[in-house]
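Expect chain and fold; see below:
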Amino acid sequence: MARSFRFGFVLCICFFVLGLEHPAIAQDSRSDSLPADVGGADPREVVRQLFQRLRSGDIEPVRDWFAPELWVRVLGGLDGLQSEALALREPSRISTRRSNRDESETVYEVEIEHAFPSVPRDVPIAGVINSSYWLIGYNAARGVIDALSFRRNEPFGEGSSEYLVQDLKQESLARAVSIISKPPYPNQNSIKFLFATTRKRDGRSFGYDRDGLTFGAANVHIPDDHKMGHIELPGMKGWTPFKYQEKLDLVKHFAISQLGVMSASDWGDSIRNSKLHEALIFVHGFNTTFDESVYRTAQIMWDLRYQGVPILFTWPSWGGATNVATLARSYKHDHDSALTESDTFDGFIHTLHSLGIDKIHLLVHSMGNFLVLNSLRSERAANQPVKVGQWILAAPDIEVSQFQQFVPTVQPYVTHMTLYASAMDNALLASMAASGGFSRAGFVPAGKPLVMSGVDSIDVSALGGELFGLNHDVFASNRALIDDIGLVLEGRPPDKRLREIRPVPETPPPPEYWRFVP
């Protein structure tokens, strides 16, 4: 009874804290509400709202988005702009093609793919408008959009299509076109990586429903002020009742600058053309949205300075659980999804191997380890099993008895396994409460982590204590631990890595497990 009360109490505290501390993600585009602050909004959502409001003629609600001189121009040409917008079909997909900035202006070029209409056979499909391209210039000092234009079928800087709203005679638009056409602003850091997902498309992103395997690539801007281990995003500032949404600032914040779907053949060609033969796959854990997984992958790969092929495998996690009421729903959905997608991940590993990737490392978080464990079990029946390199298990959300039973069966297909566990991981406490109190392999319940032959178990409890945090991302938010993960990928054993990794017991050797001592 006392045990059940303890888990229930921890569960309530964990998700109360999660609700307080979960930051707003400026590029999570699932909301249909009108962004109150255009500076902190996803440019895709801004363009969607502008397009729909031009079609309806109801633009007054977005008046504060614009510089006064631009608002006068939009209002004066509204009839013509409405006709142009009505001539376009409803959006089927919206994506950010590119972005750039100078000292005061941030410019985005956004593409709207419009649904093809039914056309007569004698009308060439090339003659049907299928895309429109929108250019937005946001002036951070003024806090407004001071440049806006859109074109039919041709990106900015190409062809001779008409410029609508503003044209190049307006100084602000000419400047915006110049900015977007230049090489990236000096000191603008970005990381490109590939992704594969079994999530179903959800408008401009991917949701939590299951679908077939989709391939793509992402480009994420890393802020100049980035601190290793952190994902800096616009959030809520101030105290109630004076809270306000922070504006997107590329000096301070991560931003998804490009996100695109690719055919399987193009995706494969990008790997072959890289001439690289090593890859690191990040598999996220429980309660993670698509955009969150993209940001986390960017942060990890950037901080590791990984030199192989960086890849995100993202499965249909529900994401967004912020209280006790949503936990059970999210946990059951995610657990079922992780089990369902195991076969897909196994096939994905074989696909990578066929593309010339000889060394496949896995960095797997939380419930993602449950997916990978079940996937690797399939290798026993494979005609030509693929052996992966390093498997780094960060706070694995796997029942201890299952872990002990099944890990020995997959070890022949793994070069080495490293397990990071913590007694401070409240998210795993919440997981145990949701699943009936069974202990997890990533949790340290009684002074030492789970110990198994062939697995380097490292107790990282000393890295806990994050204020108001769930500590569930400690593996990605501590510089020393990120450095240690980099050394694991090089194949170094614990005693040849960081001095903070101490053997337990220290004498006599060999140690039973390892402990991280900052």
Residues 189-516 form a domain with the Rossmann fold fold (CATH 3.40.50.1820). The first helix runs from residue 2 to 21. The chain has two domains: 38-181, 189-516.
